[in-house]
Q: What sequence folds into this?
């Protein structure tokens, strides 16, 4: 061995032993860490013909699994991988030894589906023990003795293969039945032999080939005057065609560089993605690879197709973990050692930071500035994430409501910090969140929990959530122990996400809010009118006119102390070739008699792979609350006091109205792997009020500028 090879081997062993010891102290190597490493080696070095590099990394994986650091099944997978590479290198004895070690660890070990050419399968078959010692006797080509052809046959050997296949079919040995039935047909194209082949193919879950053979049987049988067989074959073919599962591979929204797809170890044409593909029932392996920037991307999923199933699978490629990428690119012992050192300290966490600055202005002289920042950390393999955010609302207003009470323009700042986190347990994801909203005269505390479950290969995802908020409604510059009102809200939401087909996704949701407490504004005084004057008041009456006809009494707003809200919503998103259409509809009703409908539409267009634009439209209409009045009537009492309506409000948002929002947005992604993004959106908002004082409509403008960065 050359000195360089000795040096490399020494470095490899030293680095590997060091990592093994460190890993043992930390709690051992997880099977979930070794399996992706094996997959990555076969997807990269093995596929590219870098067999020596692949073998070196597989030897490292074997060292990582020494002792009890890996399960016996995963150890067997490592030995299978080593034997496969040795066989490709032409090292037959070494391959045999590796396969033998694999079967000692796991007697049920099998070759990898993505790397099992016939020459490797032959070496493995010679090592793998078999309980069927009479396997050679099941081969009609070796067990045939020259006999005369029986009645109905032209070839005695074909009849012998047919009879042997019939016995194997009865014994449930369907793969061998298929082999002998094929040999019989090669010797003589007999309809009965083809029917037997179709029967064994069907029993072995090769339904597509079986349907074809049944159809061929139905074509040939009448020529041999086997009319009953022809009818049976035709019926069986039609029944089988209806039961064959269908798989649809949905391409990614943005095609990565070098995009390639494999289905059950065989290349799959990319231009066939999105089409419905008939498949045999059973387990299937889907692998998609590509790159974005310098980062390799990969999708791998094992699925099971049952009779009559129609399953869309979205190819959502994700980056390899940094540890696997490092090992794949390692070219020498020093590089591998650095990878191992990095692996022992890597957090495998993706961090995202987002900032936004938004503003609003309307014709009622209300201005709002809202800067916000949020950050989140997501553990790629651990299935957990945490996040935090803070928002500040700076509001200034001099609306007609304020002027009508001769109040000065006011300014206010609201702070809203929040935290959230989630953890995945298999297909179940559980999350919690909390936030606080603080104003000079209002405090709101909120906690929430949710749970979602992935079902049917993630095509159905139901979610249930519960939210509790406790608010304190007070007065500015007034001690809260002198004046404050408590408000409690319980919110229960149920949602289900649905993969409708290869390019359409939807969701249905239902929400119930139970509110208890006095939400009346402590500053809002309600104009009162004499019973004879109230009918004469018209929508949009100016301040001077209202002041001229109103009564001197100015009672405060008073709303009902309880409110139950109910809403149902549906959303559909459809992906076209280079655009996405999103439409949502929401229906709302509550115990105050208010009913509303909201429709929202957004059409996102991919101008380039980095630039996306969208128009946006929203329509909203609602009826008034059952106690809402344009002009409230007050009546005098005999004792000189005045009676007011029990419930009264000056909140025009509780009256009948309709409105529309129209706008557009743009987003630009840049940097390596498009890790950075900047976006802007703006909307014009119009609202028409049917029954309000002082004004009949409102125009507003909203704009937001945001920046997002992702670090891995």
A:
């Amino acid at each position: 061995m050359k000195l360089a090879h000795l040096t490399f081997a020494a470095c490899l062993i030293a680095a590997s032993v060091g990592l093994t010891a460190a890993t043992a102290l930390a709690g051992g190597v997880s099977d979930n860490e070794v399996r992706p490493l094996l997959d990555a080696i076969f997807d990269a070095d093995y596929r590219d013909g870098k067999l020596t590099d692949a073998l070196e990394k597989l030897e490292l994986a074997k060292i990582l699994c020494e002792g009890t650091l890996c399960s016996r099944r995963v150890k067997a997978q490592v030995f299978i991988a080593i034997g496969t590479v040795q066989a490709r290198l032409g090292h037959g004895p070494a391959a045999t030894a590796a396969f033998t070690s694999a079967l000692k660890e796991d007697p049920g070990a099998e070759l990898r589906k993505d790397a099992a050419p016939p020459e490797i399968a032959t070496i493995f078959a010679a090592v793998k023990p078999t309980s069927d010692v009479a396997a050679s006797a099941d081969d009609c080509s070796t067990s045939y003795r020259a006999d005369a052809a029986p009645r109905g046959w032209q070839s005695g050997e074909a009849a012998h293969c047919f009879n042997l296949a019939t016995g194997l079919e009865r014994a449930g040995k369907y793969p061998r039945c298929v082999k002998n039935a094929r040999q019989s047909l090669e010797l003589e194209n007999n309809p009965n032999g083809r029917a037997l082949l179709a029967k064994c193919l069907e029993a072995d879950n090769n339904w597509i080939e079986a349907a074809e053979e049944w159809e061929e049987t139905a074509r040939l049988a009448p020529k041999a005057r086997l009319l009953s067989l022809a009818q049976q074959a035709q019926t069986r073919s039609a029944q089988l065609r209806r039961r064959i599962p269908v798989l649809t591979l949905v391409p990614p929204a943005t095609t990565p560089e070098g995009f390639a797809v494999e289905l059950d170890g065989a290349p799959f044409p990319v231009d066939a993605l999105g089409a419905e593909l008939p498949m045999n029932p059973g387990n299937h392996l889907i692998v998609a690879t590509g790159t974005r920037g310098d980062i390799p991307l990969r999708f791998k999923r094992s699925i099971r197709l049952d009779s009559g199933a129609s399953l869309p699978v979205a190819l959502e490629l994700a980056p390899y973990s940094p540890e696997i990428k490092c090992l794949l690119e390692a070219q020498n012992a020093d590089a591998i050692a650095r990878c191992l050192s990095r692996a022992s300290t890597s957090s495998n966490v993706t961090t995202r930071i987002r900032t936004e600055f938004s503003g609003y202005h309307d014709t009622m002289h209300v201005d709002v500035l809202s800067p916000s920042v949020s950050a989140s950390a997501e553990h790629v393999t651990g299935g957990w994430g945490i996040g935090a955010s803070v928002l500040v609302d700076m509001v200034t207003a001099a609306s007609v409501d304020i002027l009508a009470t001769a109040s000065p323009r006011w300014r206010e700042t609201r702070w809203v910090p929040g935290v959230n986190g989630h953890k995945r347990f298999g297909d179940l994801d559980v999350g919690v969140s909390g936030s606080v909203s603080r104003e000079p005269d209002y405090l709101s505390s909120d906690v929430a929990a949710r749970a979602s479950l992935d079902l049917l290969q993630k095509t159905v995802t139901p979610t249930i959530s519960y939210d509790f908020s406790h608010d304190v409604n007070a007065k500015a510059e007034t001690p809260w122990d002198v004046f404050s009102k408590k408000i409690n809200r319980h919110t229960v939401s149920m949602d289900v996400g649905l993969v409708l087909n290869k390019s359409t996704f939807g969701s249905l949701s239902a929400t119930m809010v139970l509110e208890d407490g006095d939400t009346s504004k402590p500053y809002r005084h309600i104009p009162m009118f004499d019973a004879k004057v109230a009918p004469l008041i018209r929508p949009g009456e100016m301040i001077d006119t209202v002041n001229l006809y109103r009564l001197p009494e100015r009672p405060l707003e008073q709303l009902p102390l309880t409110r139950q809200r109910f809403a149902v919503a549906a959303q559909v998103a459809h992906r076209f070739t280079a655009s996405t259409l999103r439409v949502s509809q929401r229906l709302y009703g509550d115990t105050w008699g208010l009913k509303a409908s909201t429709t929202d539409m957004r059409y996102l267009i991919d101008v380039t792979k980095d630039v996306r634009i969208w128009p946006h439209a929203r329509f909203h209409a609602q009826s008034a609350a059952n106690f809402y009045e344009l002009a409230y009537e007050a009546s005098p009492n005999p004792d000189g006091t005045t009676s007011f309506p029990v419930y009264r409000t000056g909140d025009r948002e509780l009256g009948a109205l309709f409105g529309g929002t129209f706008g557009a947005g743009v987003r630009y992604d840049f940097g390596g792997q498009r890790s950075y993004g900047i976006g802007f959106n703006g909307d014009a908002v119009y609202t028409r009020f049917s029954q309000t004082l002082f004004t009949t409509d409102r125009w507003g403008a909203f704009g937001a500028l945001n920046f997002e960065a992702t670090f891995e």
